[in-house]
Amino acid sequence: MQTQPVPEYHGWASRRPATPARRMRAGIAVLLLAATISGCAPSAVHVSQHDPDNLRPTACEQAWTRARQSEQIQRDRANSRAQAWIQAARECPARLDEATVHAAQALTASQGGQANRQTATLRLVQAAQQLDPLAKALPVELADQAIIGEDRSGFELSVLAARKTDAAWMLTLADAHTAAAQILVGRAKHDPRQGVYSTTDLLAHPEKSTDPANGIQTPTPALIEMDTARTLLAVGRKLNGSSGAIRTDASQNEKSHRQATSALVDMIVAHMSMAMNLGYPAASSALLQVPKH
Prior knowledge:
Order of helices and strands: HHHHHHHHHHEEHH
Number of helices: 12
């Protein structure tokens, strides 16, 4: 029996003419198949599966964004703006100057301008009482700078208070500075306080003084407060160093680290807020100049 040859099978194309439309559809199918296959292959751009947070904003970026957004809040919620900027200062020590100024400006607005001196004084007294975590973190040189800054300011305010008959509030303020110096020196290896400081410039201008940093005319007590804030800002900048974060001993944990940062920020903001409350221009663009001392 003779076997018939089996015709070769060339698929669908062997039975129907390959029109241009069919060739186009076949080409598209090939491209889709290639894309599907390539999708199973490893990507040429490596995305780490071990660091899922690498694209998330840092704590500093989040705090700064919230603080900027808080500027849209109405005046009657100025205290909320202040708290947002205080948090930004804590999370962004490299931008300590700018954040603390914004916080103090917001606090001044929330206190009703320069009228509510009692609130500003209370904030400063409370901030001074919470400085122990900062005292633990300060190296000797910076501790001396902060201690002398607070002690000198307390002395100068007490001298001014002695010249007035209605200066009980100024004595309270002087005591807050003195208490801050005492707390800071409690952790220091030595006591740099002088007790008595030169009063030549102070007695020459007991009411109004010119801020040598920017030429602004301001009440002398307000300038004393602003100078103290600048001294602590200088301490903060040196303490932060190039890393943008407070350097603490290796034995200190994260909680202690954050407490030291918060204490520094709160004290700076309290001094700035007090200065503005006493008449230092709150809207000045020259708030961050170097101190005169």
